[in-house]
Amino acid sequence: MSSLLARAAVHGKARRYARRKLIEFNTREREEFATDWDLLARDGQAVKDEALGHDWNLWLMLAGRGYGKTRAGAQWVHHIARMHGDAARIALVGANQHDARSVMIEGVSGILATAAETLPVEWRAASGTLRWANGAEAQIFSAETPDALRGPEHGFAWCDEVAKWARGDDVWANLMMGLRGAEQCQVLATTTPRPTPLIKRLVAEADRVTRGSTAENDALPASFMRRIERYYGGTRLGRQELDGELIEEIEGAVWTRAVLEERRGVRPDTFRRVVIGVDPPASSTGNACGIVVAGLGADGVATVIEDASVERAAPEMWAAAVAAAARRWGADRVVAEANNGGAMVASVLRAADAGLPVTLLHAAQGKVTRAEPVRLLYDRKLVRHAGCFPRLEDEMCGMTAGGGYAGPGRSPDRADALVWAISELMLGPRRAEPRVRVV
After folding, report:
1. What domains can you pick out in the chain, each with its CATH number?
2. Residue among 319, 322, 309, 300 nearest 425 (CA)
């Protein structure tokens, strides 16, 4: 039995039944089983997903590359053709004419490749139309020519890679005005996310949003997954294109994601100094304890080495995390904000490690104001990130000019810890440098 059959056979009651019966299948039955979408589809892809129901207008599938969006879209179109027969009029809208034809129609997971023998479909390339044996029809459209959707009337639409649509708002408006050919008109939009105005609008309006990542498709080669994870894991590109995250640039942000991507680099073999910035929480049930490790290289550039922050931790727990990070990287100083109980902060840190050199600082300015001088160091290319720190970077990009914060959580605690660490290395009083540390 193939690995495809094995995966399909172990998911859900139908799969378990089929697995028991596989030994009795003939060759044709095995082939039918291997192409049965109701059996093969993962949660979120299934055409007949009970969670979706029937009373819906817009289903948005927002997922990473290789998730299986095209296969899901093609199978949904076949489902509409079977259910509505000669009453089905379907619009197939791609980013351009080439994509609509080569991916949605003729692609390895497209409509022609997934057609069932019991309901064959004819592709009329000259007119850009599909016709099923039961009379259902579909026509391809390009998002580059929105006016082509002004006249035709449809009851259903599959819209692919909506985030790539150059004239997205115009295309969507014309499609919606012609979507009146069924009692319950429906649109499936499949796309890798980008923070375009249309995508953000569809997220807000969709009756259902399916999210997924490339890693969920276990049919992809393991070597491919290892390679792309090595190159792009945790980067903005990877989070968007592989993890399917909708990552927005916030207007007026102190840091932009483009700047952070440009500042990624290799960690030096040695550091002149290593320090840890700490933003202690006011309570164990409140914000995270920001713990960020940074080192100063011989080239005078500061490197962010690790985000060791902990969530919802009691004082002895976050102090232990600080001490562990200090030992791990050979830190010569811990710089901690003392506004929330300075004596307690120093006490718990020294209880975790009696030899831990601690400097307590009282913040007289807001987090964003303190961050501005550090952001200027990024502009001068004097700070790099040795790796990807998604949660830290989300907070950095959520801090806005004027003191606002629009990132995850209630407060940018990780970002504040970074500011303390970089300020100590690059902007604070010069301290006697310890011996060179090898890490």
Report:
1. 3-34 (no CATH), 41-216 (3.40.50.300), 257-438 (3.30.420.240)
2. 300
